Every structure is written in structure tokens, then in C-alpha cells.
């Protein structure tokens, strides 16, 4: 395992981490969670990602029970939660001081920990003043209930504003952002956030390296039973797959699979290793329902050294979507 600093902070996270979105609660029960977390931990993973919205809190309960059962020393791993979608009532949603406070304490209880190592604002809240959210997060840090706070799927200007407000108020500023990043989704991580990496030392915990499974190759012949896109609650993902853009991505995935084969690896390993080529990626969050799948994905690190200039050019020719950074960069 490789370890990378979370932006300019002193925290080092495993380059590959493990998350529970979609899987825990719907495809992964307590027994499977224990097996998956053990494989990840034994492979050097030290960051486990979660959120209040995942399976309406059940994902965190499953992870909390699994972590307690496994008995990992608390100072050997990091765990996260996210706040925004906690329920249907007005006080259970958004980034008000009340919901931020309530969501933190509920996550601590579900995960069975004394502090959240990372706590994310899952989306920006246009109905709550940024000062209120920044103060609420800063207070949780001051109380020792949160160690690092950040954002997920925020724009660069929103993150910059939150950082500026935190500095003006004397509060802990946001440390990290959790954006989607893969061979098909590149603009934010590669261009929009460039100034933030240099100006404030933003860290990133990127998600969906396999583009919701398209870059695993399993959708090359349609949607198999038991897969994520076969689940009723993720019909929107299946509709995206069946769109013109989705079909084009499936074709590109086939071509990328040939590149991976030439390197002696799988398409999934190639896609994950490619994400790690970006020095601004602090960690890539993996998801899995089977230990064999997780073991394969963790082995992506072995492919990293093989992604030389000629291989990168071959990849870029296939995806043909490299964004242009701002002129100064």
C-alpha cells in the first residue's frame, strides 16, 4: 500500500480506501462487511468512507458493528461520515447548525466511535448561510468530535468561500473535497480545483473510479443480475448506461480493456491505477460486494508503474476527453 497526505494536512491516508455507498445495507450484510473490511485493512487500507444518507443510516450501523467485531486499534484507521440527507423533516436535512450537530452525533453512535476522523458536507446548502455551516463544523472540531471537515461535490468557488469565512472567523477551514473522478469524469479534479491545491492545499478523497461499474467491464453485454444497475433504486444509473453517452462509454471501456490486458491487468485495475497518476488525488475510494473483487481492485497498485508515457497516450486517445487547464497552469 502507498500512503498520501490529505492535502497539506499531516494526515496520511492509504492511496486506496474503502467505501460503503450502494453496497452496505442492500448487497452487503454484517458478515460480508466484516470480511470486506478485514481484506481492506490487511491490504493496508486505513480509511473507511460512509455517510448518513447511505441506506438511511444502516450502512453506518453495519460498518460500526463490523469495526467493533474486528477490533482494529482505533489509532490505525480513519472513518468518515457526511451530512446533508438525514431524513424527510426540515430539521433532518441540509447544513443548518442543528442538522450538522445532530448528524455528527448520530453518526458517532451508529459507527460506535468517539470522533469522526473526516466529516463532509455532502452537498452545498443554498438555504443556509455559509457562516452558519462553517461555525458548526468549526465547533465540532474544537470539541474533538470531528478531526477534519470538508465538502463533497462542491464547486471551487464555494470551497474557497468556506475557507475564507473560516479564516475570518478563526475556525478550522475545510481540509478536503470528495469529488467523482474517473476516466470519464475529469473536469473538477484536473482543472477546476487546480488553484485550490496550490492556494489552500486542498486534499481529495475521490469516488467512483470505475464510473459506477462501466470501467469494470461487467456491463459490456448488458446489465447482469445482482449488479448495482439491476437494483430498483438505481434505475437512474441504468438509464444513464442505456443512453447514447453510456453506450459510447461502454465501447471505450472495451478498448481500454485491451490496454489493460496488454499490461497483464484487468480493466478495473487500469482505471483505478490511472486515477492515482494524479498527484492531487489523496485517496481513491473503492467499493465492493465480494472479497475477490476487492482483492483484485487493491492489486491495481501493481499496475501503476506500468502506466508510462506511451500507455497514457494510448489511454488518452481512447477516451479523448482530456480537459484543458487554465492558461497559467
Describe this protein with a few key phrases.
329 residues; alpha/beta; TIM Barrel; eight-stranded parallel barrel; two-stranded antiparallel sheet; 13 helices; globular
Characterize this entry briefly.
By secondary structure, the protein is α/β, with parallel strands linked by helices. It contains 13 helices and ten strands. Helix content is about 40%, strand content about 10%.
Give the helix/strand layout.
Elements (H helix, E strand, L loop, with lengths): L2 E3 L6 E3 L1 E4 L10 H13 L4 E3 L8 H13 L7 E6 L13 H15 L4 E6 L8 H13 L3 E6 L4 H14 L6 E2 L9 H6 L1 H6 L3 E4 L28 H7 L2 H19 L4 H10 L6 E4 L4 H8 L2 H4 L4 H11 L10
Parallel strand pairs: 3-4, 3-10, 4-5, 5-6, 6-7, 7-8, 8-9, 9-10
Antiparallel strand pairs: 1-2
Commentary on this structure:
With 329 residues, the chain is α/β, with parallel strands linked by helices. It has one domain: TIM Barrel (Alpha-Beta Barrel), CATH 3.20.20.100. Helix content is 42%, strand content 12%. The protein is built from 13 helices and ten strands. It has helices at residues 30-42, 58-70, 97-111, 130-142, 156-169, 187-192, 194-199, 235-241, 244-262, 267-276, 291-298, 301-304, 309-319, and strands at 3-5, 12-14, 16-19, 47-49, 78-83, 116-121, 146-151, 176-177, 203-206, 283-286. The strands form two sheets. An eight-stranded parallel β-barrel has the order 3-4-5-6-7-8-9-10, surrounded by four helices. The protein is globular and about 50 Å long. The protein starts with a strand and ends in a 10-residue tail after the last helix. The model has no long low-confidence stretch (mean pLDDT 94).
Amino acid at each position: 500500500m502507498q500512503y498520501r497526505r490529505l492535502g497539506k494536512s499531516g494526515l496520511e491516508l492509504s492511496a486506496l480506501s474503502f467505501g460503503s455507498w450502494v453496497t452496505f445495507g442492500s448487497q452487503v450484510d454484517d458478515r460480508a462487511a466484516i470480511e470486506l473490511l478485514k481484506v481492506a485493512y490487511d491490504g493496508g487500507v486505513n480509511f473507511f468512507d460512509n455517510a448518513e444518507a447511505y441506506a438511511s443510516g444502516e450502512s453506518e450501523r453495519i460498518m460500526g458493528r463490523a469495526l467493533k467485531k474486528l477490533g482494529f486499534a482505533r489509532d490505525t484507521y480513519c472513518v468518515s461520515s457526511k451530512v446533508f440527507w438525514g431524513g424527510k423533516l426540515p430539521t433532518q436535512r441540509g447544513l443548518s447548525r442543528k442538522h450538522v450537530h445532530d448528524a455528527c452525533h448520530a453518526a458517532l453512535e451508529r459507527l460506535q466511535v468517539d470522533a469522526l476522523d473526516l466529516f463532509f458536507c455532502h452537498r452545498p446548502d443554498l438555504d443556509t448561510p455559509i457562516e452558519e455551516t462553517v461555525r458548526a463544523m468549526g465547533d465540532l472540531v474544537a470539541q474533538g468530535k470531528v478531526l477534519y471537515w470538508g465538502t463533497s461535490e462542491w464547486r471551487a468557488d464555494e470551497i474557497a468561500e468556506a475557507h475564507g469565512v473560516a479564516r475570518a472567523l478563526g475556525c478550522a477551514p475545510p481540509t478536503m473535497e470528495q469529488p467523482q473522478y474517473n476516466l470519464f469524469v475529469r473536469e473538477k479534479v484536473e482543472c477546476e480545483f487546480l488553484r485550490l491545491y496550490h492556494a489552500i492545499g486542498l486534499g481529495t478523497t475521490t469516488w467512483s473510479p470505475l464510473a459506477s461499474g462501466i470501467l469494470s467491464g461487467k456491463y459490456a453485454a448488458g446489465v447482469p443480475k445482482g449488479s448495482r444497475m439491476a437494483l430498483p433504486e438505481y434505475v437512474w444509473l441504468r438509464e444513464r448506461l442505456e443512453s447514447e453517452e453510456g453506450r459510447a462509454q461502454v465501447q471505450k471501456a472495451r478498448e481500454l480493456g485491451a490496454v489493460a490486458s496488454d499490461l497483464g491487468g484487468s480493466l478495473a485495475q487500469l482505471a483505478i491505477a490511472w486515477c492515482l497518476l494524479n498527484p492531487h488525488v489523496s485517496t481513491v475510494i473503492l467499493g465492493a460486494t465480494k472479497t475477490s473483487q476487492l482483492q483484485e481492485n487493491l492489486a491495481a497498485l501493481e499496475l501503476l508503474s506500468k502506466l508510462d508515457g506511451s500507455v497514457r497516450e494510448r489511454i488518452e486517445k481512447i477516451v479523448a476527453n482530456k480537459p484543458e487547464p487554465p492558461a497559467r497552469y
